């Protein structure tokens, strides 16, 4: 990692922004797989003329934006959202040498995956899936030094909405969470977080943000006309785990469960 040590304030601030050419190289491989999958899916879901008019050689960002502009009822981007995290190059990120080096530098001694890599697609102007102020510790509750890595898979502009963080907020450990009610996410912090105290962290294509899972953060609104696509990796530390277990168990998708049910119903 070039320049001053990006982890020098990690313990104090709870986050570090890493820049390294290896990050862009790592993502290029993933983006190539996303591009190929997006074309295959768009070819199935769009009519021939609409598919024919997509910019196929202008890069992934342009393709994604054109798909979203052409689709009806989010049909294609919904399928992308479901398929992308199952692509082998996406899953393989979890064991990428640069990722391993980064989480080790953040003090994770014996990494275990908190979840498989997740891919977010934040459509322009769509706030439905925007996260409120929360801590990712909600997803681990296992290792106090669990970390999340967040990085865009597109070229971000400020209008696309940087993640907003509350520096140093990890130091207080796990916050109280609001009890579930319709209208807010179930992991929202009970204490309201002042908008003015949140710091947007612009993350470039050759950068990634790593933070302690107790760091309070929330989505930035995507006020652009482009689709924001990003990947999140989460790790616990076996060396500090409160129980010798995992926080994530893969299960059959809704599609499989529905297919199984249909066949069982048919048999009945
Ligand atoms: O990317 C975003 O908008 C929010 C991501 C987030 O809050 C998370 O991954 O915990």
Plain-language structure description:
Helix content is 30%, strand content 16%. By secondary structure, the chain is α+β, with helices and mostly antiparallel strands. The protein has one domain: Jelly Rolls. Strands 1, 2, 3, 4, 7 and 9 form a six-stranded antiparallel β-sheet that branches. Strands 6-5-8 form a three-stranded antiparallel β-sheet, with no helix packed on it.
Compact description:
This protein has 268 residues and is α+β, with helices and mostly antiparallel strands.
Q: What distinguishing features does this structure have?
A:
single chain; 268 residues; alpha+beta; Jelly Rolls; six-stranded antiparallel beta sheet; three-stranded antiparallel beta sheet; 8 helices; 16% strand; binds 2-oxoglutaric acid
Strand content: 15-25%
- The CATH class is Mainly Beta
- Distance separating the two termini: 61 Å
The CATH superfamily label reads q2cbj1_9rhob like domain
Bound molecules: 2-oxoglutaric acid
CATH architecture: Sandwich
Give the ordered list of helices and strands.
HEHHHHHHEEEEEEEEH
Residue-averaged pLDDT: 94
How many E-type strands?
9
Q: Can you tell me the overall shape?
A: globular
């Amino acid at each position: 990692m070039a320049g001053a040590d990006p982890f020098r304030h990690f313990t104090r601030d709870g986050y570090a922004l890493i820049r390294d050419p290896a990050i862009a190289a790592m993502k290029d491989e993933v983006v190539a797989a996303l591009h190929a999958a997006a074309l295959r899916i768009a070819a199935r879901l769009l009519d021939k003329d609409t598919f024919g008019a997509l910019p196929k050689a202008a890069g992934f960002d342009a393709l994604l934006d054109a798909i979203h502009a052409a689709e009806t009822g989010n049909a294609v981007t919904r399928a992308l959202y479901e398929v992308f995290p199952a692509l082998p190059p996406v899953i393989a990120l979890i064991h990428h040498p640069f990722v391993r080096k980064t989480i080790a530098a953040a003090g994770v001694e014996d990494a275990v995956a908190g979840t498989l890599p997740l891919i977010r697609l934040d459509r322009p102007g769509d706030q439905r899936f925007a996260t409120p102020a929360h801590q990712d510790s909600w997803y681990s509750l296992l290792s106090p030094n669990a970390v999340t890595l967040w990085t865009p898979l597109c070229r971000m502009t400020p209008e696309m909405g940087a993640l907003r963080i509350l520096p140093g907020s990890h130091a207080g450990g796990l916050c109280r969470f609001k009890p579930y009610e319709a209208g807010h996410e179930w992991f929202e912090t009970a204490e309201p977080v002042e908008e003015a105290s949140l710091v947007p962290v612009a993350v470039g294509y050759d950068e990634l943000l790593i933070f302690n899972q107790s760091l309070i953060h929330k989505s930035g609104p995507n006020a652009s006309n482009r689709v924001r696509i990003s990947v999140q990796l989460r790790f616990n530390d076996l060396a500090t785990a409160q129980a010798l277990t995992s926080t994530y168990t893969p299960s059959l998708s809704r599609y499989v469960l529905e297919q199984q049910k249909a066949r069982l119903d048919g048999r009945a």
